[in-house]
Amino acid sequence: xxxxxxxxxxxxxxxxxxxxxxxxxxxxxxxxxxxxxxxxxxxxxxxxxxxxxxxxxxxxxxxxxxxxxxxxxxxxxxxxxxxxxxxxxxxxxxxxxxxxxxxxxxxxxxxxxxxxxxxxxxxxxxxxxxxxxxxxxxxxxxxxxxxxxxxxxxxxxxxxxxxxxxxxxxxxxxxxxxxxxx
Length: 182
Hints:
- The chain is mainly alpha-helical.
- It has a domain at 86-180.
- The protein is built from 7 helices and no strands.
């Protein structure tokens, strides 16, 4: 039989659905959300695998009293003498008192025994008005180096809601007094 060629007279239907759009690029937030979900699944699977693999190991309950211990009572530890000069040493002791005894504002000493900057200086001066005055003067110099408009140590102390900055200023004043040989 001879070979004949047929012409294509078959109609091909045109697609009625539009071609799929290329995938939109995910934002960083979307990618992080997907990664978080994938990691959560992997961690859950690992947790189950760990529990299955260790279920046969016998364990005894741990008594927390054997694990959690408080600090040993070593008695009072003397504060090291970091500064040989009297004003610097006084300010160092005042800083230590604020750190260990607590800081307050609005009064020299509060009901719990916490002190303001001036109250700590006064307590550590132990009645020596000249030493107290020199220490307050150095603290004011240290404050004015960092903060404009401070008029007094108690005013500066009471301007803060937390003791971080006032306590830090007493420590910096101790260094300043030492540098000045006071």
